TrEMBL record:
InterPro entries: KH_dom-like_a/b, OsmC/Ohr_fam, OsmC/Ohrsf. Pfam families: OsmC (PF02566). This is OsmC family protein.
Length: 145
């Protein structure tokens, strides 16, 4: 895996990341740090990446388990250390999974497997942060009504 990050000097503290898969992601700093709030902060993108990684796992595990999953949202909150380096110290991941006749046990198992075995991003973040998870299941038919 590769990534190149370029500082866009005439845009304050905007950084442009070019991923090995050919995609571009912009990041910026807070105004008090020289940024102009034009894009997410680098730590926000790290948090978003972890959410994407674990959501991917959960959906894939549920689909392989023949669950009729139609949606998955991960609402995340993070706490950071007060001193540098301001690493994440706690993450809370609340999964809202939508589908038809989803099994509570299957969804909880998918979240646990992602957290304990498959998600590389949360495994790395778990080295400095405690991670808590919760699950909410929504019926697709009720959600559509």
């Amino acid at each position: 895996m590769e990534c190149t990050v370029h500082w866009i000097a005439d845009a304050g503290m905007v950084m442009l990341a070019e991923t090995g898969s050919g995609h571009v992601l912009s990041m910026d700093g807070a105004p008090e740090g020289g940024g102009r709030n034009l894009a997410p902060r680098p730590m926000e993108t790290l948090l978003a990446g972890a959410g994407g990684c674990t959501a991917y796992d959960v959906v894939l595990i549920l689909k392989r388990g023949r669950q009729q999953v139609t949606g998955c949202t991960v609402k995340m909150s993070a706490q950071r250390a007060e001193t540098d380096p301001k690493v994440f110290t706690h993450l809370n991941l609340h999964f809202v999974v939508t589908g038809k006749a989803l099994s509570q046990a299957a969804v909880e198992r998918a979240v646990a497997l992602s957290h304990e075995k498959y998600c590389s991003a949360t495994a790395m973040l778990g080295r400095t942060a405690s991670i808590s998870t919760s699950v909410e299941i929504k019926d697709a038919d009720a959600a559509a009504a």
